[in-house]
Each structure stands twice: as C-alpha cells, then as structure tokens.
Design brief:
This protein is α+β, with helices and mostly antiparallel strands. The chain is 36% helix and 24% strand. Strands 3, 4, 5, 6, 7, 10 and 23 form a 7-stranded antiparallel β-sheet that branches. Strands 17-18-20-19 form a 4-stranded antiparallel β-sheet. Strands 11-12-13 form a 3-stranded antiparallel β-sheet. Helix 3 packs across helix 7 and helix 20 packs antiparallel against helix 22. The radius of gyration is 29 Å and the shape is elongated. The chain starts with a helix and ends in a 7-residue tail after the last helix.
Length: 624
C-alpha cells in the first residue's frame, strides 16, 4: 500500500445504515449557532411544518443554525433541514468520556473516532471520540441590547421611562387614547406603549433600547404611578461589562433573591459596588458572624433584584441548587461572557497550587456543565466530575494544563489579587498541557509516515525529543502537532526544497552518496545496513517522486481533539428520542460531543455512499 493511500484524510460525512434511525435522549443539549445551549426535544416542540414518516418517525421542516464539524476538522455553523422524533423502547448507550462529557444515544448512533465514524454499540473504552477544542463564536453589543429590551417587553410588570426630549417628540407623533394618555403624559410606559412606538415610528428594537432611560416593575393592578425605585439601563459596553461581572459575583457568593454579597475580599466588595452603580443602585456594608467576612447588602429597591432575576435568571430561592447559565450570557459577546466567568470564578473558584489547576464546585451540576461548554469559546478545555455529599450531587470543574491556564489568564483572569498571583505561579510550574484533552491518539507509525512522506529528516525537523512520539513512548499534544504541521509546511515551502528532494531521491536510489543522509535513512528504516532499500524505503521513494505530500491536507486540531472513553453504560428507555438533519456535514455537537445526525431511507436512497462497503466509507487517519 502506498504512503499516499495510507495517509488519506478522514471523511466526516458518513451515512448510517438505511434501516436504522440514530437518535438522542430528549434532555441532551445542542450547541446552537446563536450561542444558546438548547435541549434537542425543545427544538422539535417549537412546531413548524410537520411531516409524517413511516408511522413511528415524525419529522418537521426546521431551519436552525447549529455548530457542526467540517471534513477538515474545523468547527463551523450550518443550518438544519429537519428535526426528527421517534417513539422508542429499548436500550440507550450512555457514553462517558475521560473529560466528564456524557451523551445518551441509540446503539446505532455513530461517533467520530480517530479512525472514522463508529456506532455506539461498537465503541469500547479503548476508543477516542471527537470533541470540540474551540468553538468560534461572535456576537454584538447590539444583539445584547435587543435581547434585553425584548425580555423586558415580555414581562407584564415592566414600566419604562424614556429620555425627556424623546417622550415629548413621541407624544406629538403618536395619536393617544384614554387608555395610554396618562402613561405617556407621566412618562411611565407599559410594554404595549413601546410596541406601539415600534410600529408607528418604524424603529427597530436596538433603537428602542437606546430611547429607554430607566425601567422599574409595578403590578398592573396598581396605577403606573405607584412603583418601586427606577433602574438605569446601561448605555455602553463598559457599563454592561460591569453588570455581567456583578452577576457572576452573585452567582458565586450572592444570596438568593439578590439580597447581598458575602466575601472576605474588600476588592470584590468594591467591584460589586462599582458595578451596581451602573444601574443607579448602591450597597450597605453590615457585619457578619464570620470573622474577616463582609456582607454587602443591595440598596436599590425591588427593581434591582427583579432586573437580575429577569435578565440573568437569578434564583429567588434555593440559589445553590437552582443556578442555570443565563441565556443572556450564552448569546453575549466574549467580552461580556468573560466578565461573567471572571466574576463567578473570583467568588467561587480556587487556585490549587499543589495540583496546578483552577477548580470550582457547585450544587447545580448542569450550571457547571454549561460553564465547561462556555469556556470552549476561549479555546479553554476543562474536566468535569461529580461527587455526592449528604445526598446532594455536586459538580466540580477543573482547568489544568499550561495551555488552558495561559488562555484563562489571557482571556478571563482574576480581579482578586491572591488568586491572580497563584494562577501566574501555577502557569510557571505547569510544564505540560492537559493530558486528558490535549493529547492526540495518533500512532507513532502514522506520525513517522507523515514526516517521511514530506521528505523531512529528524535533524531537519528540529523538534526536540520527537522520537518519543514516533516510538509510541508518549502521546503528542495538540500544540506539538500544530508545531509539527507548521514546520512541515515551512520546510516544504523553502526555495531550495526541490533541490534537497532531488538529492534525497538520488541518495535513496544509490546514484549519489551523502553520508549524513544515508545515516538518517538507515535510522528511519528506509535503508538496511548494507544500503539496500527496505519496503518502507521503496514506498517513500515512490511517494517522493509523485510529490504525494502536495496532495495531503493535515488537520490542525485547532478546533477538534479526541478524548478517551471512560465508561459505557446501557440504559433501558421508553419514550421519544430526537435528532437533527444537517446538510452536507451530517453531524452536530450535543453535550460537548460531536455526534452524527439522522439519515433515513428516503434521505439516502440513490446515493453512491449507500452502495459502499463499510470499509470504504471511512478512511484511515492513524490507529492509536
């Protein structure tokens, strides 16, 4: 077999068996293109155009942007064409990975492994499954403003106050009636008044947000004049960044109903006060029963508390067990997301100097699972674990490895100085990347063949201790792989590369003599001790003459890595299962794992792939 044939690229689009559906448990979360993490069942339940398919199957036409894996192992956003549902009674496979990711699927559901797609029922703890290493995400400040104003409009109790010069202008342009005259006269508007403005004045929701100066909340059974204190709506990116940080602090060390922040750090108390000032609120410091602990009570009336309840989904009661990642954080620009994470980690996380890691625990496990997914937007991979204490399940999140810690410092960081100094210390101590997530399960033989097909010797490559990877003494990390690929491209692009290649061909053929090259070829197994070509040498000689390296596209692993399976459980299940159809790539991301999507008989009838044998559908990437 030629080197070129052995080093073919993986085909990500692989269609399943025509007689089997491949579905997920209804509670598995899909990564949407707008940043939201949504249960797959909720996508189906938002009914669009329903089409019945052979009895048990239902599909509806639905275009939803989701994250998907391209054939070059890049993560991108594509649209679904259908959302599926099927009645099911049988076994589900729960696949648990070494980084703590879990997903429940039918036995036929394929996962992307280092050797191609593999059904759940055929997986073993020796397999490595593809997971995203980085999620490319962009959002705008304007989208946050639109989200906030729409959220406030959906709440019946909200009262709005426009800027003084604006309300006078609006009164002249809108015909008032006996129902809204008082509210416009007093500049205390309800949702229907603002919706009327959008219609009559032809303005969009971002412009509407800019026109609103203050908001508060008042029961509709009371006149608009009787309301709690007003909250100032933030009007700059800097102000919103402060608000997101305050929300993060309260998710960590705040009390239920947004009453107070408890902290031993004066720095965090000051940041809390600074952030609340952006809303026109303040704090009052009171004593605490605990020594060296401060309590900062929120002063600003019910309006401030309701603002964080409605906009950031802050719990009214039982905060510790009822946290969920706010939707506004999911759809916000990275600048705001970073501020929220920083606030939460400043309050609740610790920097473990002995273990060289950042760690945080919560009695709301799903909150931390989604935090793990959120960190991927900064290229930070993490590990999730669960533990049970007094019949309560706690989630624990770890960030470790030099690369992840450096990225956390660069993109998020700490305001709390002690934690910041500890983070810098463990970065200096950490010599390696996270071995669970950052190591690529490529065989040494595959790595060596890649180097050889590019006609590069170990001395030319110039990466220290590279033989440990080629001899399977150690797994290569993603960062080393990126360095390796970059070096190969660099060497093959040099102006004298063709001249060096011709010389290597002549030496390998025995036409020319070069002692250093001969020793290198012997060391690589291309020549025997008596300078005769080995089978590998003949293979590489042919590849060099054909310039096979020009036809090979190596994955960078910038966006995808492969994590070892830790456990496989079988679960009996009766009920509906769900799936998506994603055109062209045929996969999406669920619970932080890349999974294949549904393809039924009518979906693949007549395609050439359906006629292929299983061995022809997936191609060798590199055995582990």
């Amino acid at each position: 077999m030629s080197a070129e044939k052995k080093l073919r690229q993986p085909i990500v689009v692989v269609l399943g068996h025509i007689d089997h559906g491949k579905c997920l448990h209804p509670d598995e979360y899909v990564f949407l293109g707008n940043g939201k993490f949504v249960k797959i069942s909720e996508l189906f339940e938002a009914r669009k155009e329903l089409i019945k398919v052979d009895g048990d199957y239902e599909k509806e036409k639905r275009s939803v942007l989701v994250y998907t894996c391209e054939d070059d192992l890049r993560i991108n956003v594509k649209s679904t064409s259908y959302v599926w549902r099927v009645k099911y009674n049988g076994l589900l496979y729960e696949i648990e990975l070494a980084d703590g990711s879990t997903v429940r699927v039918t036995p036929e559901h394929p996962f992307l492994t280092i050797n191609g797609w593999k059904k759940a029922e055929n997986l073993s703890p020796d397999d490595y499954v593809a997971v995203p290493r980085k999620i490319p995400f962009k959002a705008t400040y304007e989208e946050v403003c639109k989200y906030v104003i729409k959220k406030l409009l959906s709440i019946p109790e909200t009262l709005f106050k426009l800027k003084d010069d604006i309300i006078n202008c609006v009164r002249r342009k809108i015909t008032l009636n006996r129902f809204n005259y008082y509210r416009f006269y007093k500049n205390k508007l309800r949702s229907e008044d603002l919706i009327l403005m959008v219609s009559k004045l032809n303005i969009d929701y971002y412009k509407l947000y800019e026109l609103v100066e203050f908001i508060t909340f008042s029961d509709r059974r009371r006149r608009a004049g009787h309301a709690s204190k007003w909250v100032k709506l933030p009007k700059s990116k800097e102000s919103w960044e402060e608000i997101f940080y305050v929300a993060g602090l309260m998710f960590g060390d705040g009390s239920s109903n947004f009453d107070r922040l408890t902290s031993s750090s004066e720095t965090l108390i000051k940041e809390f006060e600074k952030g609340l000032a952006e809303l026109g609120a303040s704090i009052r410091i009171i004593g605490s029963k605990k020594q060296n602990v401060l309590e900062a009570r929120v002063v600003g009336g019910l309006a401030v508390k309701r603002f964080f309840k409605y906009i950031f989904d802050f719990p009214n009661r039982g905060k510790a067990r009822n946290l969920r990642l706010p939707e506004i954080v999911q759809i916000a620009p990275l600048r705001f997301t970073s501020a929220f994470i920083r606030g939460y980690f400043d309050a609740d996380a610790s920097v473990n100097v002995k273990q060289n890691r950042i760690e945080v625990s919560s009695a709301s496990p799903m909150f931390l699972k989604q935090m793990k997914w959120l960190l991927l937007r900064f290229g930070i991979t993490s590990q999730y674990r669960e533990k049970i204490i007094k019949n309560t399940t706690y989630g624990v999140l770890y960030i470790k490895g030099r690369r992840n810690l450096e990225r956390y410092l660069a993109h998020i960081g700490f305001v709390e100085r002690t934690k910041l100094e500890k983070l810098k210390k463990i970065i200096n101590k950490s010599k390696r990347d996270d071995i669970i997530v950052e190591k690529i399960p490529l065989s040494g033989d595959y790595i060596k063949r890649i180097r050889l097909i590019h006609a590069v010797t170990l001395s030319e490559l110039g990466i220290p201790y590279f033989t440990v990877y080629e001899k399977n003494m150690e797994r290569m990390t993603c960062s080393t792989w990126v360095r390796f690929v970059h070096r190969l491209k660099e060497l093959t692009s040099e102006t004298d590369f063709n001249k060096r290649l011709e010389k290597k061909i002549l030496v390998l053929e025995g036409v020319k003599n070069d002692r250093n090259l001969v020793l290198a070829f012997m060391s690589d197994g291309l020549m025997s001790s008596n300078r005769k070509l080995t089978p590998l040498g003949k293979e590489m000689l042919l590849a060099w003459k054909r310039r096979s390296f020009e036809k090979i596209k190596l994955p960078t692993f910038d966006y995808v890595t492969f994590v070892k399976i830790k456990n496989i459980r079988k679960i009996q299940y009766t009920g509906y299962l769900y799936d998506l159809s994603v055109d062209s790539t045929e996969n999406f991301i669920a619970n932080g794992v890349i999974v294949h999507n549904t393809t039924l008989l009518d979906h693949i009838r007549g395609t050439t792939v359906a006629k292929k044998e299983p061995g022809e559908i997936t191609q060798h990437v590199g055995a582990s």
